[in-house]
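Hmm, what's this shape?
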Amino acid sequence: MSDVHGADKPIDVTSVIAGCADLDDCDRQCSANHANACVSAGRIYEFGQGVPADPSRAFSLYERACDLNYAGGCYNTAILLERGKGVEKDLERARQLYAQVCEKGSKTSCERAQSLQDAKL
């Protein structure tokens, strides 16, 4: 018996997160300042879903979403900064972004910001 929700198929990240039809659609929506589409496209590039992995491109897309005041974009930007993935490692900037997302209610971001603050001591 087949599941009507397609649970036996892989989740299409672009459609689940941003309502994009495909990567090109996410790029168009991102260019039109739809921050969630920037994050969706970023995830595709970060993890190489159907395209070669490109963490630098992912970082740029996440950063754009963050600039549009989208917490998910700021969080993902912070992760890449913390890990030095696709961008030079910058723990202070990562901490600042985690703190910014923390202020919007993300407990995980609060913990990450505190952890990076403690590591500086």
